[in-house]
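Reviewers asked in the last cycle whether our approach scales beyond single polypeptides. To address this, we selected a multi-component target totalling 368 residues and predicted its structure end to end. The input consisted of the following lines:
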Amino acid sequence: MSTNTRIILICSGKGGVGKTTLTANLGIALARQGVQTAVLDADFGLRNLDLLLGLENRIIYTAQEVLEESCRLEQALVKHKQEPNLALLPAGNPRMLEWLKPDDMQRIVAMLTKEFEYVLIDCPAGVEDGFKNAVSAAKEAIVVTNPEVSAVRDADRVIGLLNTNQVKPIQLVLNRVRPKMMASQEMLSVEDVTDILALPLLGLVLEDEQVIVSTNRGEPLTLSGSDSPAARCYSNIAKRIQGEDIPLIDPSKEGTGITDKLRRLMQTKIF
Amino acid sequence: MTLTLRDILNKLLRRQQTSATTARERLQLVLAHDRSDLSPELLDQLRREILAVVAKYVDIDIEEGAVSLETEDRMTALVANLPIKRPLEKKTDEKAS
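The resulting structure, written as structure tokens, was:
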């Protein structure tokens, strides 16, 4: 299994754009499709992946003990009860950052590839050591961004660094899309962002209050098979990762009222 | 650069352009600088030096001369647009005087 394992880094540069939420939802969605999936929290400073997956009370050992060889990998992995194809390798103590090196990250991921078909790495924000450690272990990457200037700018920095580290393919997920704001041209369009960043779009995720509800509960939207807008987007992305040909949602086609139609007319390109 | 019906309407009504258009323009500029690692000050120095070199060979309009960074598909190009008034032909000048 080890050479075929897909090791995907989920990164963004800027914090708070939805890396961890995407990692949790994709992890569950892939596991539901029947593939053995591990999610690795590489954000040692500010770990949260355990919380979004609802696994925070079941952590006994972490990546730290595995690296120190004071426990076996199997002991540190937290299996999801409802979705046993998914396991979390929790981040260790923030003090790990003092000694953690790219080699350590590669060692941990190499262990995971022996048992899993997918390894999703939840990358810390920023472009410093935490990012560099995580990148060194990844084969491919998903860059998450929002249609906002700061998020797009930071995504661009990260894409540059991924390129120099020979990570590929690099695909884009545009998160927190508000179709109405895009239609009235008060939000960067999907095309604006993909043009500027020059990356293939793996998917977009519509803004959805249910995301907050699901994080409150520690139950990712993809777990319950919810039909909320973001849930559909997340499972579409998971299917595309698996190679299925799922058409992208066109946010400009969302809404059928007369004002939506007028907005669409105003978006007509003259040249 | 794309222009939409709304952009044209806004222009006609002398309204502010949509914020998405502003965002796109600001991003393109800031990314060109990020990607080339050139600060506006360095770019200005570069512009002045290029103008000085070019001015040795042709008579250019210093005021109109523009040196900027343009980006397409993650490729950044340094673009200089220097309108030439007339070639510097010293010999003919000497004959005339």
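Residues 240 and 246 of chain A are 6 Å apart (CA to CA). We regard this as preliminary and will revisit it once experimental data from Aim 1 are available.
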